[in-house]
Amino acid sequence: MMQIIVQGLLLSGLYALIAMGFMLIFSIGRTLNLAYGAYIMVGGYMYFWLSQQLGMPQVIGFLGAVSVGALIGLLKHRLIVKPLKGDAVAVEIATLILALITQFALVLIFGDASKILLPLIPGVVTVAGAQVTYNILAATVMSWIIILALYAFVRGTHTGRAMQAVSMDEKGAAISGIDPDRINMITWGISGALGAAGGVFFASYTQLSPQMWLAPVIISVAIVIVGGIGSIIGTLIVAHIIGFLEITVVAVLAPELRGVLTMVLIIGVLIMRPQGLFGREEH
Amino acid sequence: MIPFNRGTNNWEKKMTFGRSIITGLAASLLASTAMAEVKVGFIGSLSSDTGLSTLRGAEIAIEELNAAGGMNGEKIVLVSADTAEDVTEGVKAYEYLAETEEVDFIISGSIDDVSLGWLPRMQEYQIPTLDTWTSYIGIIDMVVEDPELMAPYFMNIASDEALATLYINFGADVLKAKMGWDSVVILAEDTAFGEAITGLVTEALGPVAGIEVKDIITYDVGTVDFAPLFSKAQASGADFIYQVSSVNSQVISSQYVKLQVPMAMTGVNVSALGLEYWEDTGGAGGGISTLSPIPSVGFELDPESQKFVDTYQSKYDSRPKMPHFNGFNAYWGLKQAMAAAEAAGGFEDAAKWAKEMEKQDITLKKDGKLWLRYAFWGADEVEEVTGRTYPHNARFDLTAPYDDAQPSMVVIQWKEDGGVGVVYPPEYATTDFTVPSWVK
């Protein structure tokens, strides 16, 4: 039981970190950014290239990954989202294609074989009978720091409040003097940075592979749909529900069913409470 | 004059026409002689170490055969079809080779599930086919049940039953007798390969090696988080983990190392069969042991096999740096397939070719001792240990001193310093089996 609690807490922290950037874009940019997984993938590979292949310090590798993630987010907004503004389907298709192009590009550069990212912080500690790596502990701590910082930023800064305003009513925000285009661009940049940061931890916890972008996107979609639009707290809580659900299913039922109950949960929430457990109703 | 001229012209025209026909026929005959070729089709993944090992082994064999005059004077050419290790793509690839390329012979580097996918196509087209990686005993059972339909099929790797049987010996001699382990938890991927190995090991470990199977945990091949699975394995109370992993195997082994799971783990880990394993796991792969078909990494090579590896390494500078066992199988197997075709007058009569293929036998020696043997079991020949037949399956020997053929497999182990060696059987061992430093 304690093993489930420990592993559930750690996995949930990682999921929350991964889903946060996706939630921002979905809430503020109103875009189902299917290329979000590309940030995660590029973040992981960039860290691998800088720190593991070039031998640079891990901090440089991490900052490089986050910077490239933010840059890709900004470019995506400028080159794809803005020109296609108003056509949600076209944006979704374009982002999906972009994710696939990123996948093919990484195959060309790094090859098709999976790679193992060394832990950012090596070492293991036994907690309540479960083997816990310092790496996943760091990921959880980092995820909480980032989430709290994001919460403070959104609640306590002018730009953050502007992001909230745009997420609620873009036209109303514009009338109030907020530049929605600028806010959207900042959001895409932050989302890219968050995705890349999550990618470094996710890859070091699991693996690096050109197909690794899909699983985090599914997890993010699940968390955001169940949590609801525009809720950092909702994202955090649902990340924990899904994380614990997965760990419990593996431990108690069968490993093959790991993602199945999550899917059932999505369908259930879509039917019973379309705005999500913690989301506001859209008008 | 005119009639004469006309007649002369007619005669000349007829002669010219006749000469043209003769010249044309001769030209086409010469052209057809020059163009005659034997077409070999490769089926397998073009982006995996497994697929590339078979492809490159076949390429080297074809180069050498062509340099020696080809097959019955005909040039051998190679075309390839990518399966991307996907069952549907595999079926399409086989159809492409059969219908579009109209190949004479197919050499496969497919994984088990993919081979099972295209097998009905092979039965339909009756194209002589050699599998160099797939080891699924169910296919050999099909040869037993319907030898006519399965005549064109050969598997030149020991089937998984033979692999598992020798592993049971390893269990009894090393895991039980030397390490003192009494129970095991099996951690197996959800594939045909995983199911077959799990079934065979489960059936025999208890009664033969005296090791109790406490639990069997099956996981999806897409699993990337093994922490809860290792916890479940620990909770079983078993002495060690037996892993069965052929897809993305470096993930399970690296997480085992990163988590420092306090239980020993051995079994089948396909990623550990290549020299790239250490690099792929970022060095987080020490302590992992796996059974491996022969020759494996860490395996001492005879001079002929070493020559093949030298040629391979001078020809290719990309991964895999050293061919996996199926690369050796492809190299020798393709030569045997061509020799059989020469004796059978080609590949057209698959049954006749199969009869000649059954006779192929290459023995490689090291220090005067039989080291490797590329041959096939006779249709009615019963293997003593398992008490069954293995028609069209690679010949193997399950009992020391392995004087009829090589063992069906060896157990290799990667050490924490990045070294790798054979730990079982003793006749082929280069190092001792040890547990990782964090396992008490």
Number of strands of chain B: 16
**H/E element string of chain A?**
HHHHEEHHHHHHH
Q: Unreliable stretches of chain A, pLDDT < 50, 5 or more residues?
A: none
Q: How many strands in all of chain A? A: 2
User: Which CATH architecture of the largest domain in chain B is right?
Assistant: 3-Layer(aba) Sandwich
Distance between the termini of chain B: 114 Å
* Gyration radius of chain A, rounded: 18 Å
| Number of structurally distinct domains of chain B | 2
Derived structural class of chain A: mainly alpha
CATH class of chain A: Mainly Alpha
* Number of continuous helical runs of chain A: 11
The largest contact between protein chains, plus residue counts on each side, is: A-B, 36 and 38 residues
Going across the biggest sheet of chain A, name each strand in turn.
1-2
Mean pLDDT of chain A: 84
CATH architecture identity of chain A: Orthogonal Bundle
Q: Give the CATH topology of chain A.
A: ABC transporter involved in vitamin B12 uptake, BtuC
